[in-house]
Every structure is written in C-alpha cells, then in structure tokens.
Design goal:
The structure is a single chain. This protein is mainly alpha-helical and 142 residues long. It has a three-stranded antiparallel beta sheet with strand order 1-3-2. A hairpin with a 2-residue loop joins β2 and β3. It comes from Providencia huaxiensis.
C-alpha cells in the first residue's frame, strides 16, 4: 500500500512466530525472481476470489443456509461426525454475518427438531440430508 501501513491487526491465543517483510525487499525479490512473483500473484488472486465469493455468499443466502453450509464444510474438513467448532459462537455469528441471537435461535430450532446435537463446541449431525438441501443454494457452482 502507498502509505506502508497494513489496515489489520491480529492477536494470537498462543505463542507463535511472525515474519515482517519490508515492501522494498519483496519488490526486489519479485523483480529478481519472476517465479516467486507469479506464485504471489496466484495466491493474491485466489484470496481475492475467496473474498468475493464470501461477500456474495453473505448477500445472497439466508442465515440458515450459511450455517448449514458452514457446518457441512467443517464436517468435510474434519472427516468426522463429531464436528469441533473452531470459533466461539460470537465469532461464528460474525463470520456468518448474523446476530448472535439469530445463531442461537437457529441452533436451538435444529436441536429441537432433531437435526443436530450440540454440546459446548462439538456438533453432531443427525440429519445431514436436511443440512445439505439447505446449503445447496448457498454454494457457488464454480
């Protein structure tokens, strides 16, 4: 960025390591090694596409569809029927673009109908077909 300031910050929950690279050093590396520049451009393009899809997903689907798609995506990534939610419920609501109260109401409704069970941060799906049908319209075909 022209002002050399990154508009985000982060806070780690555990100890970790970070690498701070100067913009001039990155530009020199890109000029000296086009293969690295190509990989960076591919990565940036991929992240841009991911963010555009996320915005479209937030604006073109319902809260229930987004929650179903999120839970099913976690199931496929974790390869288990006992899905561990990696976010707090407040963080999950923010990620899905809904209010905490809406998330709680959806989860309670699905529990009462027997579609899922949830205890602390673990979700067990009882009716995957219901969630799949809900999430179909929230998925992009490409």
């Amino acid at each position: 960025m022209p002002h050399n300031r990154y508009p985000m910050s982060l806070r780690a929950k555990t100890d970790g390591e970070a690498l701070l690279l100067d913009k001039r050093d990155i530009l020199r590396l890109c000029h000296a090694c086009p293969q690295i520049m190509e990989k960076l451009l591919m990565r940036f393009s991929s992240k841009l596409y991911e963010n555009i899809n996320h915005i479209d997903w937030l604006t073109s689907s319902s809260a229930e569809q987004r929650l179903a798609a999120y839970i099913l995506d976690l199931k496929h990534k974790q390869l288990t029927s006992n899905i561990i939610l990696p976010l707090s419920r407040g963080q999950l609501a923010a990620k899905l673009g809904i209010r905490y109260e809406t998330l709680s109401r959806l989860v309670s409704g699905w529990r009462q109908k027997g579609f899922i069970d949830i205890e602390k941060d673990t979700v067990h799906i009882h009716n995957e077909n219901y969630l799949t049908q809900l999430s179909i319209s929230a998925q992009r075909p490409f």
